[in-house]
Design a protein that fits this description.
The protein is an alpha+beta fold. About 65% of the residues lie in helices and about 10% in strands. The protein has two domains: about 5-215, Cation efflux protein transmembrane domain (Alpha-lytic protease prodomain-like, Up-down Bundle); about 225-310, Cation efflux protein, cytoplasmic domain (Alpha-Beta Plaits). The protein has nine helices and four strands. The relative contact order is 0.13.
């Protein structure tokens, strides 16, 4: 379920984004910069997104009941998908709208010193939040490349913050360049263009995040290495004649549902098959404690007989 690292990453991001949002809007009110207003909107959206992630973490920890026998772990994936929608609709949409508005009705250039100060502070704070998220993400990466690690990650909170902070840093750089070029060439349109680019960056990040969240929300399988380990463990049991297939579903970051179809040796008695199932479950849970529910279908007994011993 929710991990301490997930909460640590979210709280670090909330603190950084709240401080950044306040300073950005103060600077925007002084300078009238469109890019700065877009960046302020971006930080407010990010802060709200992280509160939504905290809500998702909290709700995903509700215990299983009659209406949800496998628990509420997938609520985290639902709220992560909502975050993606918010980034796209509010963050990206508002920034693009603000940029277009300033292209149509540009504001006169003001002294950019406050913009430079605030953007520099924001880059430092966002860099801190990004570093925290990266440190929590890297241990899960292993030998995979960065994108493969994100695709295989089952905890969306960490890579969501990583996506958001990456977009924030890129947006800050774009805002800084837009303000600088506007004053360098005495051109009021660079500011609005920068705001539109920030909106496009946010929209791209939102689409990527929605894509990754959707896979988890609709029932993604466990990590390929986990599945490979289950196959290997099943073959170590002498009573297992043939391994037919393995079905897994990720119910939460640290909770997996497993269904095994196995052909047992035909000379085994019912009691021997039950003992084999019990030993196999112990091996699987010892190797992968995140597998909370195990269902084993014994093909040699009957086509539909199942042994199930839910995790206590």
């Amino acid at each position: 379920m929710a991990t301490d690292s997930s909460k640590k990453t979210i709280f670090a991001a909330i603190g950084s984004n709240l401080a950044i949002a306040i300073t950005k809007f103060i600077a925007a009110s002084i300078t009238g910069s469109s890019a700065m207003i877009s960046e302020g909107i971006h930080s407010v959206v990010d802060t709200g997104d992280q509160l939504v992630l905290l809500l998702g973490l909290h709700r995903s920890q509700k215990p299983a009941d009659d209406s949800h026998p496998f628990g509420y772990g997938q609520e985290l994936y639902f709220w992560t998908f909502i975050v993606a929608i918010l980034i796209f609709a509010i963050g990206g949409g508002m920034s693009i709208y603000e940029g277009i508005t300033h292209l149509i009705n540009p504001s006169p250039l003001e002294d950019p010193i406050w913009n430079y100060i605030v953007l520099s502070m924001a880059i430092i704070l966002e860099g801190f939040s990004w570093t925290v998220a990266l440190k929590e993400f890297l241990p899960t990466k292993g030998k995979q490349n960065f994108w493969q690690a994100i695709k295989n990650s089952k905890d969306p909170t960490v890579f969501t913050i990583l996506f958001e902070d990456t977009a924030a840093i890129l947006g800050l750089i774009v805002a800084l360049i837009g303000i600088f070029l506007g004053h360098l060439f005495n051109n009021v349109y660079f500011d609005g263009i920068a705001s539109i680019i920030i909106g496009i960056i946010l929209s791209i990040v939102a689409v990527l995040l929605a894509r990754e969240s959707k896979g988890l929300l609709v029932g993604e399988s466990a990590n390929p290495q986990t599945i490979a380990n289950i196959r290997s463990l099943s073959k170590t049991e002498p009573g297992v004649q043939e391994f037919i297939r393995v079905l897994t579903m990720q119910l939460a970051p640290q909770e997996v549902l497993l269904n095994l179809e196995i052909q047992f040796s035909k000379n085994l008695t019912g009691e021997e098959i039950a003992l084999t199932v019990e030993r196999l479950e112990i091996k699987i849970r010892r190797k992968h404690p995140e597998i909370k529910q195990i269902f084993i279908e014994a093909k040699s007994l009957a086509a539909t007989r199942k042994y199930s011993q839910p995790f206590n």
